[in-house]
Amino acid sequence: MRQLNLDQLRTLVAIADLGTFSAAAQALHLAQPTVSLH
What we know:
- This protein is globular.
- The chain contains 3 helices and no strands.
- By secondary structure, it is mostly helical.
- The protein is 71% helix and 0% strand.
């Protein structure tokens, strides 16, 4: 099983809470492609 680092976990939680990669990226102050890679 692959281990998640803290940034990846935060990204996953933001996607789950906000419902879209774009919204999560905006909330985390990241580019959308960066969120997609996590």
